[in-house]
Specification:
Distance between the termini of chain B: 58 Å
Shape of chain B: globular
Radius of gyration of chain B: 19 Å
Number of strands of chain A: 12
Shape of chain A: globular
Strand content of chain B: over 45%
Helix content of chain B: under 10%
Oligomer: heterodimer
Structural class of chain A: alpha/beta
Largest sheet of chain A: 8 strands, mixed
Number of helices of chain A: 10
Number of helices of chain B: 1
Order of helices and strands of chain B: HEEEEEEEEEEEEEEEEEEEEEEEEE
Distance between the termini of chain A: 90 Å
Chain lengths: 301, 302
């Protein structure tokens, strides 16, 4: 009896040891912390542009919606030479000083260094249909505007926002002189604008882009592969810990986008980090991504 | 000012990266559809102020379903839609005519040529008209079916939609109404003004396409108290979050279109649907929004 006990016990101990050797104890991975570099910080010797909050905009393309928006004008803008244009969805986030993206500060630094052309930034919040009835909430139009695969948002920019800004500032009207960017649904919106209207916008910046089935956006990789290549230059960023939910898996969706762009020979750059569904990594990458995105315009000079 | 800006930024970030409302927040694991009163052939359903389900049969009976079973409360004509009013009366669409039915009184005719009816949280009665054939707004040489939305008491239609059976439902706050327009494959939202008029039309909810175009209609719409929208369709019950994003599709109880739906029960957490003329129910994790729930009617239809 005792012999059996020793034998069984010995086998069990041995197998445990073997299993333990097969599965070495994993060390917890150090959390990657993304920190803004000097190009995302205000520099003493760099002239600063000006961000102006515009009067609330009431749209006709998105009936009865109102939205807050801002315009950034770099100090190098001379009022004579048409400036490049960059539009951002969820604009308040992108223009916020000390926030994730800090576009005005990054732009000040990069233009000063000659890494970006003189570029006017347009920061648009999503529309809201304000309630007129007592006790009712406004209807957020964000998902409708950003996730819908149509030319409606591009028309909104073409017929409303760009002409409004052009009343005050000289803007480039060629697609090479225009870029559009956004985060999450704002990222797929940026791609949709360029996809629908490559004659208006040729440069796309997408942070944790929602190329998932929120409103059918997961079809893009397939469509890209089967459509004649369009003149689009895209910088896509995502993180391995991005969302995995009912709409889809964000990292996989962005990898599918990358594969489709690569397959079709697009001019693109894709960066996969470690963050989740937020602007931490994309924000830190802003100097690098803007430098890459605008390089063709800089090298023309 | 700083505080307002901070709140605005936080709100924007929260909205922008809002987490989602999957069906797991609605459906109870292991809980499926259960047939209710299988002998009845049901045309339409609604919920009274106390959470009882009212159903109109294809034979014209109006039946109240309580925990003691079905109880016939009135005889009607061919029923196609019903809604419970804030006054505790039943609004019925019979032979394309809108009636008000109050306890002990004969049915009162309200309007002709009606397809669907809904009551706003404020108690106003809205209805969609039957089809009219009119010139297309885009191409004068073509004719289209037009369907209009009216408010009871108003003379002119307050909104026009096309190719629809005009199912309608109000958001819980009463500021938005949803109207089906399956010709577009979308459900339209309108803002409800202070005076009850509708504007700011947008194709807010994108429906999944029907397998058979001939069955591409929305039988009914309802909402829960969290703002999800439930649409009765050929594929089943299509559920959307308050930002218009699809949460998922609750499969139908049978391989037939879902033609009507309503939340009922004391806690209004039971989702009833009509599928192939039969009534089914399943308990959910959510609470249905019933516009008239705050003031249960002292009267009943009769």
């Amino acid at each position: 009896m005792s012999r059996w006990f020793v034998l069984v016990g010995g086998v069990f101990a041995l197998s445990s040891l073997v299993l333990a050797q097969d599965k070495p104890k994993e060390k917890p991975k150090p959390k990657v912390v993304y920190k803004h570099g000097p190009d995302s910080e205000e520099q003493k010797d760099v002239p600063r542009g000006k961000v102006t909050k515009m009067p609330q905009w009431t749209s006709k393309v998105f009936p009865e919606t109102v939205r807050d928006w801002w315009v950034y004008v770099p100090s190098q803008y001379d009022g004579k030479t048409p400036a490049c244009v960059m539009v951002f969805q969820d604009g308040e986030w992108y223009q916020k000083a000390g926030g994730d993206f800090r576009f005005p500060t990054v732009c000040d630094n990069l233009i000063h260094q000659g890494k970006m052309p003189v570029t006017i930034g347009i920061f648009l919040n999503p529309g809201v249909v304000p309630a007129t009835k007592e006790g009712a909430k406004g209807r957020s139009n964000r998902s409708f505007e950003y996730d819908t695969l149509s030319d409606q948002y591009a028309r909104f920019l073409e017929t409303e926002i760009l002409p409004e800004v052009a009343k005050t500032y000289k803007l480039r009207t060629d697609a090479a002189g225009r870029a559009i960017g956004g985060i999450s649904s704002g990222g797929i919106c940026a791609f949709t604008v360029a996809w629908q209207r490559p004659d208006l916008f040729s440069k796309v910046l997408s942070h944790v882009g929602s190329f998932t089935n929120i409103r059918g956006g997961d079809v893009y990789p397939g469509i890209i592969r089967k459509t004649e290549k369009k003149p689009i230059r895209a910088y896509l960023q995502d993180g391995r810990n991005d969302l995995d939910n009912l709409h889809g898996n964000w990292p996989l969706a962005n990898l599918q986008m990358e594969a489709a762009l690569k397959f079709k020979g697009y001019d693109y750059k894709f960066v996969m980090g470690e963050e989740g569904h937020n602007g931490k990594h994309g924000g830190v990458l802003m100097p690098e991504s803007l430098t890459w995105l605008w390089e063709p315009e800089v090298s023309k000079k | 000012m700083m505080r307002c800006t901070l709140v605005a930024v936080l709100f924007l970030a929260a909205t922008a990266l809002a987490q989602d409302m999957p069906l797991s927040q609605v459906l109870i694991p292991g809980e499926g559809w259960r047939a209710v009163e299988p002998k009845l052939t049901v045309a339409c359903i609604t919920t009274d102020g106390e959470g009882n389900l009212l159903l109109g049969t294809k034979g014209g009976e109006i039946v109240r379903l309580t925990n003691k079973g079905p109880h016939e409360i009135a005889k009607a004509r061919r029923l196609t839609a019903m809604a419970w009013s804030r006054d505790g009366d039943l609004l019925t669409v019979e032979d394309d005519t809108l009636y008000r039915r109050a306890m002990g009184k004969p049915a009162k005719k309200l309007a002709d040529g009606v397809a669907q009816v809904a009551v706003s949280p404020k108690g106003e009665v809205y209805y969609s008209s039957g089809y009219e054939i009119v010139e297309s707004p885009e191409s004068p040489d073509e004719f289209v079916h037009r369907l209009s939305i009216y408010r009871l008491g108003s003379v002119l239609p307050i909104a026009e939609v096309f190719q629809s059976n005009g199912a309608l439902a109000f958001w819980p706050d009463g500021g938005t109404v949803v109207i089906s327009d399956v010709g577009e494959g979308r459900l339209f939202t309108y803002r409800v003004g202070k005076d009850g008029t509708l504007d700011a039309q947008e194709g807010y909810y994108g429906l999944l396409p029907a397998r058979r175009p001939s069955q591409a209609s929305v039988g009914g719409l309802t909402l829960d108290t969290d703002g999800r929208l439930y649409a009765a369709t050929e594929l089943g019950v299509q559920v959307f979050d308050p930002t218009g994003r699809m949460c998922g599709v609750i499969l139908p109880p049978a391989r037939k279109p879902v033609t009507a739906l309503a939340f009922a029960g004391p806690a209004r957490d039971h989702l009833y649907v009509v599928c192939d003329g039969k009534l089914y129910v399943r308990k959910t994790k959510v609470k249905g929004f019933v516009a008239t729930a705050k003031k249960p009617g002292p009267k009943g239809p009769g």
